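2024-03-11 09:14:02 DEBUG pipeline.ingest accepted 1 chain
2024-03-11 09:14:02 DEBUG pipeline.ingest length=452
2024-03-11 09:14:03 DEBUG pipeline.predict start
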Amino acid sequence: MGKNSRERHKAKRKAAEAAQRRRAAGKSGPDDPLSLFGVPHVPSQRRIAEQIIDQAVHAQHRDETAELDRCRALLTTGPGGATGIQVVNRALLAFLLREVEHAWRRGWQPAELARVARREYTTRHGRLMVDAIAAQMRSYSTATVDRRWQSQLAALDAQVWWAHDDHYVTAWGERQALDRVGVIAIMVEVLHLLATLPAIEQVGPMPGTAMSAAVVPPDDLDQRMIDRVRALLAKAESTDFPEEADAFTAKAQELMARHRIDHALLVAASGERDQPVTRRVSIDNPYEAPKTLLLQVVAEANSCRAVWMKRFGFTTIVGFPADLESTELLFTSLLVQATRAMTQAKPSIDKYGRNTTRSFRQSFLTAYASRIGERLSAATEGVDREMTASAGAAQLLPVLAARDGAVRDAFERQFPDLTEHATAINNREGWASGRAAADRAALHRRQPVAHE
């Protein structure tokens, strides 16, 4: 064979090898070397699997039952038999990890993703989401993961329990006692959920980014205040006397209000930049609306603004970091107190013999939240008057007004379009009992719950 012939054969082999690599990577185009020799492009198994997954997610979104069934069947059997099943398994896990990361970039956090999967579908969907989160977290060093994310991951028990990613889909099905048809259905549903979640406000840094000052633990002064508040609220939760619980709760609110003012004056005097931040608090069924109302009145008493995102079951709160900490701490305690008082109160049977437990408790919690809102506001206003007199209105009022304005502006930027819905009150006994549990005083005003 002459030199020129050897060179031509060598060039053909290189072109064929390059084309094979392109097909394996799912690439094609008019510059495919094999097209020069009349060889048609054949997609790789991986590319075929990815296309089927894409089609399945789109069919799920458009509610095209026949197309969805067809795609699920193809993913169940795999393109090309046994090897195709393995290719599908790898592609499914890769899709899950990619969509989890995309959801994080749109503002979602680990606990929120797991919760919304359970809320929109089932606990199995939530378990699948936790596994995808655990697998994706392998990409990040622990040192670059925000402490709040680490806390969420620990609470979720997010761990990579499977031996190898190639075996995950099969192992998960065995663990959940599901056949492959059921596994594929759940995976497509979770992929669709992840792909369609809206963008929400970023709360803290994503994994892999530099840690910011916003995630530094509070200083000793803040920690001492928090410890004292926790001690007061623990006493409020443990006592069997409503008046005593109210006194401890009011004292905790006064302490937080004093700290808020002291902190605002300290920041103003030092010239530091202190900006409002965002936090989300999960609100669980039953009785989400009155629980949300309780969180809103606590937030307002602590100079924060809150909005309920009803579909996803959480409330977004905007405020300064110390005020957000106070809000969540007090809300958690009050919810414990309210739940205990509610379960001790016994609803009656109506005149038609029907059980009124649900309407009683809905009305009870709404009344409780309304009255607590007034008590907290009164406690805060009392501290504001006292501190203004001692610090001087000329010094304090502009500082507090500027901070309130900053919170309002930040909140309105995030939520320019809100609607308000009143919580239904249809059980007089529950309403009266809830008011009595909060404070015995008369209160007839109903407060709206804002949600997006």
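2024-03-11 09:14:41 DEBUG pipeline.report Confidence is low (pLDDT under 50) at residues 18-40, 213-221, 440-449.
2024-03-11 09:14:41 DEBUG pipeline.predict end
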